[in-house]
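Forwarding the complex inputs:
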Amino acid sequence: MSELKRKSPESLQDRLDQVHELLRRHRLVENLVHRQEGEHQDLVESLVHKQNLVELQRKLDELHPADVAYILESLPLEERLAVWQLVKAERDGDILLEVSDAVRETLIADMDNEEIMAAANSLDADELADLAPDLPRDVVRELMDTLDAQQRERLKSALSFDEDQVGAMMDFDMITIRDDVSLEVVSRYLRRFDALPDHTDKLFVVDNDGLLQGVLPVKKLLVSSPDLLVADVMSADPVVFDPEDDASEAAQAFERYDLISAPVVDAQGKLFGRLTIDEMVDYIREESEQEVLSAAGLREEEDIFSSVWKSVGNRWAWLAINLCTALLASRVIGLFEGSIEQLVALAALMPIVAGIGGNSGNQTVTMIVRGIATGQVQVAHGRRLLRKEAGVALINGFIWGVVLACIAWLLYDNVALSVVLLSAMTLNMLLAACMGVVIPLIRLRLDRDPALGSSVMITAITDSGGFFIFLGLATIFLL
Amino acid sequence: MSELKRKSPESLQDRLDQVHELLRRHRLVENLVHRQEGEHQDLVESLVHKQNLVELQRKLDELHPADVAYILESLPLEERLAVWQLVKAERDGDILLEVSDAVRETLIADMDNEEIMAAANSLDADELADLAPDLPRDVVRELMDTLDAQQRERLKSALSFDEDQVGAMMDFDMITIRDDVSLEVVSRYLRRFDALPDHTDKLFVVDNDGLLQGVLPVKKLLVSSPDLLVADVMSADPVVFDPEDDASEAAQAFERYDLISAPVVDAQGKLFGRLTIDEMVDYIREESEQEVLSAAGLREEEDIFSSVWKSVGNRWAWLAINLCTALLASRVIGLFEGSIEQLVALAALMPIVAGIGGNSGNQTVTMIVRGIATGQVQVAHGRRLLRKEAGVALINGFIWGVVLACIAWLLYDNVALSVVLLSAMTLNMLLAACMGVVIPLIRLRLDRDPALGSSVMITAITDSGGFFIFLGLATIFLL
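Prediction (whole assembly, two chains):
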């Protein structure tokens, strides 16, 4: 590939492997040194040790901050902190922005206030706002004092928004121009910059009062005649956002209209900041990870190498909820202990009814919640969706119910028991389908998050409901 | 907001509401006309009908193709096809690219070959490649014939890659320049274009043989002196991809390095195509949706308004797997029917042991699978993670086991039963934790997808295992 150095994911992996190898050697030497403590310390080994560290530091300096962040995240705590010490102080800020919240906490805990201040000094107001919630309070106050008036104002305004609002995600790196100048003048103006901000795919056209008039895409600037006026070339109808807009809606708009950057204007139409695609991509990724985590009953992102106690804290809440629903299901069974004593096969078959109902209900609720999230499902669709899901449940319940009834008949040689099993399975899947449609739609109407805990609720209903339907039918018809 | 028209998500919602309102009126009139069939058809009503359609068509014409796609997706089948008929033929291609696979199928099924050919004519080779798998075979063949040699070559090569490979996602809209010309010449060259391709944030520098020499970011072109040569300004070490690279790795690289576009080069270093951030965003979104869907046992994306039979087809596979695992758990219980007959409380308590083990195991497996996906977890970390997860499970198992043992003691007044319950819960959560670490790591080592079905497998183990441990301990110690 001649002069062109490849930097694709594979070669990144190579670099990471090199760092890991250096760390391993570093560890070996440390162990050796450790073992010889008290004895005569071998000069050669100490040199090897130092050499390793120097090489490691050199490797780290070559890496993009995002790659260093990635390495830090994939290291257990002690090694993570050892590597963190090797990173040059002026890069600390950029790297802290890239690591996950959980890992950021461990890194900041290892820094003293001076180091934090030094790291923060290289950052813009919007980047500081991202870090601020994780910093010690007195450091934030001290930081505020070092900023100039404009930066302080920006930091304050960024901090005033909710984490999920556009205002908390925007930056202030916009280049503004007037609409009454020629493109020639714009080009000359741009050449006065040393570098343009990242993601500058458009310039923002404002009037004397800072009101947004339109945007001038760089693409248009490049192909248009230099004599034209900005007003003739700009698009006067750009996609704009309000700082109070919901970030997930902004992300959808970025996706839908293939945006790279977009202006954020306040209620008066004044240009306030700008949103860029990289923030939106991070948001989309985080949002989807949150969805996967909460479906599994993890409250938040967890540092995979965090301590046992921290993990217990992250996980106990959902286990407690699960315990309550399991206890409820257990009490439902308790109601029918007499029936089980008479026909112990019921105990063996009842988990099947509950389990397959839960699976089917989760399929329905996932479909509906996703439809709500993408805006395809409205409350008005309720009856139509209910009909469809009930149909699916009836067919699936009947088909698998017949299969299972045959197996149960082979095992227990009891036709009545098989018929009860078939009926219970079909009914429980019907219950699951209805609840799978109704619960998220009710939550939508009440303006609550339709996704939160919906899977737990469905499982609780299909467990208790399944046991009740199966044991109830059995008690009525079999005993 | 003076002259500036807002087009933020809210006002999009307004437009969508207008379309829905027009559709509703359209439906009302149709019903009316339908009721009067055979009678004297009222001219006025037919006019109202037409007027509605014209207004609807006008509204649709104003909307971005992505918005029309969104409307089509949120409509039940009959109305979806009615709206689809109103869309201008030359926009069909763009809209087909935007809708989800499931909805695209319903739209294409409604078009005849001529309409499809007309829609396809407005598309580029890489866009055709996205549509081709959903088109009738003879249409694809006919299409191939209408393309010029270069386009046909590109379509063929795009189709030759796997859906998840970079080669299937790249486009061919790159602007190439030589490195021995001045920026002034580049600027003049660009001005000869009517418009630059979307997402042109860099120009690709190639030599006479088409080998990639570097990239010239547009940002640099704008701030640098026009007299400089491309070779002096370009970056010679860009992030490049191979057409056979995995799309998920490319997406991670785009995220990590905040890329907007990147060159794709073949094994010889020849420029082959380009990747853009919009494709990567779509990929990230689809990948995360796939994860959520498959966790719930849905094989693929499902049109929420699809027919009952289609949905049954999409869902039966996982229900069948679930049925098998449930049957296995049921047979484990069957082994201990004698014990349950003697102490029926076991039947009521056993689902708790199984359920909370499943929840806990799913937490572990989700953490590990995520860690593997982000590259933080390697096989070498196995022992450390096993220790940690076992610790978490022991603590959680013991705490909740004690709570539950107390409740069971209150209910059944049987200390021995409570102790068995406590032991079984702790052991089953330990089993869940170990399997939650071991299963994904084994799959990783065997080069399989660690996520696929891991939740089903864990639940199967904790169900059967939980029943076995609890009933086994009870049989040994209580009877």
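The longest helix of chain A spans residues 382-412.
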